[in-house]
Design goal:
Layout (H helix, E strand, L loop, with lengths): L1 H15 L4 H18 L1 H14 L5 H20 L1 H6 L2 H7 E4 L12 E4 L6 H11 L3 E3 L6 H11 L6 E3 L4 H10 L4 E3 L10 E6 L2 E6 L1 H9 L2 E10 L2 E6 L11 H18 L23
Parallel strand pairs: 1-9, 2-5, 2-8, 3-4, 3-5
Antiparallel strand pairs: 6-7, 8-9
Helix pairs in contact: 2-4, 3-4, 9-10
Amino acid sequence: MIALISRLALAMMWLLHFLPLPVARAVGTLLGLALYIAIPVRRHIVMTNLRLCFPERDESWRRRIARRHFIAFACSTLDRAYFWWASEARLRRMVRFHGEEHLRDAEGKSTILLVPHFVGLDAAGVRVGMAMPVVSIYSRQKNPHFDARLYAGRFRFNRPLLLSRQDGMRRVLKALKDGLPFFYLPDMDFGAKDAVFVPFFGVPAATITGMSRLARLSGARVVPCIAQMTRDGYDVNILPAWENYPGANLEADTRRMNTFIEHEILAMPEQYLWSHKRFKTRPPGEKGVY
């Protein structure tokens, strides 16, 4: 039964890519509102994160951002239909690319692409993947049918190098030294291992130090990649490489990353992945927040 439902869902996704984007976005809006109502556990996580990060805002503002987040998340999920099956020409029109010149370094240094968890990160992955092969971390999905489709979608352009978290950073480091850019998403709570507690909107957050460590070991530069969902597609912005990075120590580098992500969130607060338990790991002796 699960296999049949999975195949039907993928068939519906395939049909979706024939539709104009505004129609798919209308469906995504309805789906997002339904999810906001139907999944109170996930809504609680989103609201808890927003209360922690925006205590100065009133509850009506936080509820509005939460609803918009569910809509943006649902729309971005349905947009995978285009990423998986639409033509390259259509994707280039749908996902606009800015700052591509920052992907390549005149001195030949390798590149770590800092990609925060905005809902448009899949659009960023597709568009960067069109420009060049990259290495990225792949998390296997529980549903084998969706896992196979997601995996195939990642291989549509330039055949990236996909590694599992179990492969560790050694293979990433080797890929960096071989010249492959690393598409890196380091802003989730992966537990206390290899992490430090640094502020995220003023709240101590367990944040991995991998970006600083990789930059030190490989000599790679850090280039931010920010994907923003728009009414007619996405804007993927590649920003200039950070100067004076890595800096004095791991904690200062990690704090700098969080501060940068905070600044980007303020421009589009509804598009950050608030449904993730960003503050799940707490400092010793501190109670859980969820």
